[in-house]
């Protein structure tokens, strides 16, 4: 029996490199999937591709009324909302703090942090109506350290950690679990294409060669962890952080000596 039969999952940023993989993974496991994204064309195409048990709703994560409409759409289409995956996020073009525009700072935090806050705020009552559920916030290994030239993104992901723990404390007695996943460098357009306003992609200056698992992560790696955390197998886990980075945060691995 698929793990998510009769459950409804809303994934934000659901047309992106990681988001679309998460949507497909939940769908394979029997879930009703609600694809939330601002890209109407790609969102509708993905819902059409999946067919039954898939619904697209246009969702601007910075807009509380858009969130309310998305949650209503999930409940109207499938009867309840059981899982929220706060996956939507954007990267800033690299710049030192003193060269970062205030508008860039505000935009990154508005999407990555305020968008996650609004998702929790609006989805929590729906999860209560469903007698409980799960929220997973997709953060980043950049939320566990400092990274030069990426202050807005780093700050947003650090803040998501505190937001997650607070939500876990507030919602636990409502049978709602809240956890965070911190992906490292995952092979998606997010990594291979320059951020808006940037001239180079992260992949242009990052190599996994020194690390314990010397490859880029794949979206499927993150999806497998996400499926575990949102399943009943993780029923005793809340307020926790899961790093999936191939050893990036550990630092360079001991290299095998060759003759």
From TrEMBL:
Keywords associated with the record: Oxidoreductase
UniProt-recorded Gene Ontology molecular function terms: oxidoreductase activity
Originating organism: Micromonospora inaquosa
InterPro entries assigned: NAD(P)-bd_dom_sf (IPR036291), Sc_DH/Rdtase_CS (IPR020904), SDR_fam (IPR002347)
Family under the similarity heading: Belongs to the short-chain dehydrogenases/reductases (SDR) family.
PANTHER family membership: DEHYDROGENASES, SHORT CHAIN (PTHR24321), ESTRADIOL 17-BETA-DEHYDROGENASE 8-RELATED (PTHR24321:SF8)
Protein name per the record: 3-alpha-hydroxysteroid dehydrogenase
The keyword Hydrolase appears for this protein: no
Taxonomy of the source species: Bacteria, Bacillati, Actinomycetota, Actinomycetes, Micromonosporales
């Amino acid at each position: 029996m698929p793990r998510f039969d009769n459950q409804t999952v809303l994934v934000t940023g659901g047309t992106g490199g990681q988001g679309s993989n998460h949507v497909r993974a939940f769908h394979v496991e029997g879930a009703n999937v609600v694809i939330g994204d601002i890209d109407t064309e790609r969102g509708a195409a993905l819902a059409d591709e999946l067919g039954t048990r898939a619904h697209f709703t246009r969702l601007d994560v910075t807009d509380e009324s858009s969130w309310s409409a998305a949650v209503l759409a999930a409940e109207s289409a499938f009867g309840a909302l059981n899982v929220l995956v706060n996956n939507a996020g954007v990267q800033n073009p690299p710049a030192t703090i003193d060269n970062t525009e205030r508008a860039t700072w505000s935009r990154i935090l508005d999407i990555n942090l305020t968008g996650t806050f609004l998702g929790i705020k609006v989805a929590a009552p729906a999860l209560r109506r469903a007698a409980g559920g799960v929220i997973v916030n997709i953060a980043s290994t950049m939320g566990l350290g400092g990274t030069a030239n990426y202050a807005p993104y780093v700050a947003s992901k650090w803040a998501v950690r505190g937001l997650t723990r607070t939500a876990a404390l507030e919602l636990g007695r409502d049978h709602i679990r809240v956890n965070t996943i911190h992906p490292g460098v995952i092979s998606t357009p997010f990594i291979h294409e320059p951020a808006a306003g940037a001239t180079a992609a992260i992949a242009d200056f990052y190599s996994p060669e020194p690390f314990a698992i010397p490859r880029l992560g794949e979206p499927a790696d993150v999806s497998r962890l996400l499926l575990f955390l949102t399943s009943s197998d993780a029923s005793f886990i809340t307020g926790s952080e899961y790093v999936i980075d191939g050893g990036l945060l550990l630092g360079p691995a001991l290299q095998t000596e060759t003759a």
